[in-house]
């Protein structure tokens, strides 16, 4: 037996198109749908031909939707084909019957890994030396092996994995194998949950990323079983990865999915620290993302035994455990933690203080706390601590429209990432550089940075895609392409509101309101409020809801800067209607709220209703980092 080369995606699309048109000449073949279907056909020419034959009675989208039962779907074929080539199942079954018993046991057991596996993972489930068996399966084209940064990795074609999973179910051993899979997942989480935030995180981050699909599968199975130990281990590992990758949509879903199980879990001693990591990361995310208090995560932390704040995670947990007390007792207790002689504890406490002061409408105190955080973390061996400090200082400057002050900290954050060899997590920093360059008026630099960022953005990251489009809108306005810029703002606002209203991506509310405010203000600057009448009509209700939330829940971290942006948007509407006194009062109130100034020129502190001056396009020199633009 020899390995047949798999078709590339373009070759699969071409073959599918040819065979589909031969089967039904008038069939509709949407390019994106065809490509997506072909991605799941493992590069197998037979699978492509059998799928294409189904267009006689199905649309391409219907074929893709039935791939969960690929063996039922992909049967048939030309009548003159050999019998064993008439169905995909027959082809795999023929190869299966050539295996010795050890090979069959290995394949059906390892089919529980949806994301591939290492030799160590295979050894964990098969109990014994497995390299010879794995080598035989690779030789027979039933496994593929590839070199990755985390070592050699084995994968099955989806077709083979589905067949082997059915064989496993037929033996009645699927529960036993699933238990072994969850045991492997727990051990993996225990081994990796702290190192991602340690001095040398690269290898750990690579390992977690490589196992992501397996860990997600284990998490879903463990959640369904209320298996607290596995849920804690998976949450700790996945939260580490997704916080580092700034994948906030997945973090929000993770926090929601695991909250109940973790809050009812009483860990054995071996699982206390991994549970602490899981609860601390989920609580910190909810706190910093502007959501209501993470009651369940806080309850989980509160039941764990205390530990010295000698790691970043333990320091984070210590501050978060004290969060209810800090919010109730006011500044005195917070100041006490911020002045601790333990650097990690002081640094994390000052990080929390930046959010407390920001959302109490005191941005300068927030910035001072961020600078103290950097001083506390400066000599610590943990790169993520320094990255957090530089990123937070830059974020506060960007919100205030001080791109020139943000750039040095964004550049320092990039140096931190470079120092540990991590390049995949630079998206958030580079997006900050785009905004900073836009704020200082260096439109060409902003556009160059944006061009570098766009190919790396995840397809499903709504917040990143809409941010990029908002920056594009500002660039168009600066370059004098007013109609195109305003149209882009309307498109971004519409997409976000639609996403929020259908509950597609939790945590987008604040970003959506910021975009809606900027959309109204940009149209007011150019005398085109008529194009955003639904948005202007909704402003009073949006503002009322936001102010009510701020008053009722001081820990709700959407905050005053977003409220200020809505006030400024309403001010532009009032001024456009000729209600000058009302517009001026609302503008003054927006200033008191320290309205968010991220997007320039639209959110420049100019008189509402009048176009701001157009920034110059600097080509050769960046502004001094000490001088706000």
From TrEMBL:
<feature type="region of interest" description="Disordered">
    <location>
        <begin position="600"/>
        <end position="629"/>
    </location>
</feature>
<feature type="domain" description="Winged helix-turn-helix">
    <location>
        <begin position="104"/>
        <end position="169"/>
    </location>
</feature>
<dbReference type="InterPro" id="IPR011990">
    <property type="entry name" value="TPR-like_helical_dom_sf"/>
</dbReference>
<feature type="compositionally biased region" description="Basic residues">
    <location>
        <begin position="615"/>
        <end position="629"/>
    </location>
</feature>
<dbReference type="InterPro" id="IPR058852">
    <property type="entry name" value="HTH_77"/>
</dbReference>
<dbReference type="Pfam" id="PF25872">
    <property type="entry name" value="HTH_77"/>
</dbReference>
<protein>
    <recommendedName>
        <fullName>Winged helix-turn-helix domain-containing protein</fullName>
    </recommendedName>
</protein>
């Amino acid at each position: 037996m020899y390995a047949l080369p798999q078709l590339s995606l373009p070759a699969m699309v071409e073959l599918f198109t040819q065979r589909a048109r031969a089967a039904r000449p008038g069939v509709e073949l949407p390019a994106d749908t065809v490509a997506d279907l072909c991605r799941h056909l493992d590069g197998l020419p037979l699978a492509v031909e059998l799928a294409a034959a189904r267009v006689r009675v199905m649309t391409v989208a219907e074929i893709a939707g039935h791939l969960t039962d690929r063996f039922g779907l992909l049967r048939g074929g030309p009548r003159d084909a050999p019998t064993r080539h008439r169905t995909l199942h027959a082809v795999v079954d023929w190869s299966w019957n050539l295996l010795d018993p050890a090979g069959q046991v290995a394949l059906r057991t390892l089919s529980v890994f949806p994301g591939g596996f290492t030799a160590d993972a295979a050894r964990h489930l098969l109990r014994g030396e497995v390299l010879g068996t794995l080598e035989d399966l690779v030789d027979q084209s039933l496994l593929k092996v590839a070199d990755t940064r985390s070592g050699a990795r084995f994968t099955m074609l989806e077709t083979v994995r589905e067949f082997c999973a059915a064989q496993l179910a037929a033996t009645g051993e699927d529960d036993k194998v699933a238990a072994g899979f969850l045991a492997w997942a727990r051990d993996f989480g225990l081994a990796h949950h702290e190192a991602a935030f340690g001095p040398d995180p690269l290898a750990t981050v690579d390992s977690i990323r490589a196992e992501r699909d397996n860990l997600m599968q284990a998490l879903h199975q463990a959640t369904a079983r209320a298996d607290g130990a596995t849920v804690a281990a998976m949450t700790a590992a996945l939260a580490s990865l997704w916080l580092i990758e700034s994948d906030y949509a997945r973090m929000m879903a993770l926090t929601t999915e695991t909250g109940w199980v973790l809050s009812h879990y009483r860990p054995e001693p071996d699982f206390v620290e991994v549970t602490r990591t899981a609860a601390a990361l989920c609580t910190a995310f909810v706190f910093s993302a502007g959501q209501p208090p993470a009651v369940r995560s806080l309850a989980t932390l509160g039941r764990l035994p205390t530990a010295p704040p000698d790691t970043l995670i333990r320091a984070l947990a210590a501050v978060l455990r004290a969060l209810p007390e800090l919010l109730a007792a006011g500044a005195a207790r917070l100041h006490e933690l911020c002045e601790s002689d333990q650097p990690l504890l002081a640094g994390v406490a000052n990080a929390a203080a930046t959010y407390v002061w920001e959302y109490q409408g005191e941005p300068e105190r927030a910035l001072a706390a961020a600078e103290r955080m950097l001083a506390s973390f400066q000599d610590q061996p943990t790169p993520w601590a320094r990255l957090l400090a530089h990123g937070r200082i830059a974020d506060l400057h960007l919100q205030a429209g001080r791109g020139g002050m943000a750039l040095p900290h964004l550049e320092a954050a990039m140096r931190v990432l470079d120092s540990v060899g991590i390049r995949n997590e630079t998206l958030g920093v580079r997006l900050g550089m785009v905004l900073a360059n836009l704020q200082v008026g260096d439109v060409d630099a902003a556009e160059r940075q944006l061009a570098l960022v766009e190919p790396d953005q995840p397809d499903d990251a709504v917040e990143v895609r809409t941010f990029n489009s908002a920056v594009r809108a500002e660039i168009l306005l600066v370059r004098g392409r007013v109609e195109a810029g305003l149209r882009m703002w309307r498109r971004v606002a519409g997409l976000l509101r639609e996403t929020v209203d259908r509950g597609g991506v939790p945590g987008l509310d604040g970003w959506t309101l910021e975009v809606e405010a900027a959309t109204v203000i940009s149209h007011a600057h150019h005398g085109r409020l008529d194009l955003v009448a639904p948005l202007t009509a909704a402003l009073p209700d949006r503002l009322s809801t936001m102010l009510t939330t701020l008053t009722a829940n001081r820990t709700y971290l959407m905050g005053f800067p977003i409220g200020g942006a809505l006030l400024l948007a309403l001010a532009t509407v009032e001024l456009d209607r000729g209600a000058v006194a009302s517009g001026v009062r609302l503008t003054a109130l927006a200033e008191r709220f320290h309205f968010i100034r991220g997007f320039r020129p639209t959110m420049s502190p100019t008189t509402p209703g009048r176009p701001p001056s157009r920034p110059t396009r600097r080509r050769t020199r960046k502004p001094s980092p000490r001088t706000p633009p």
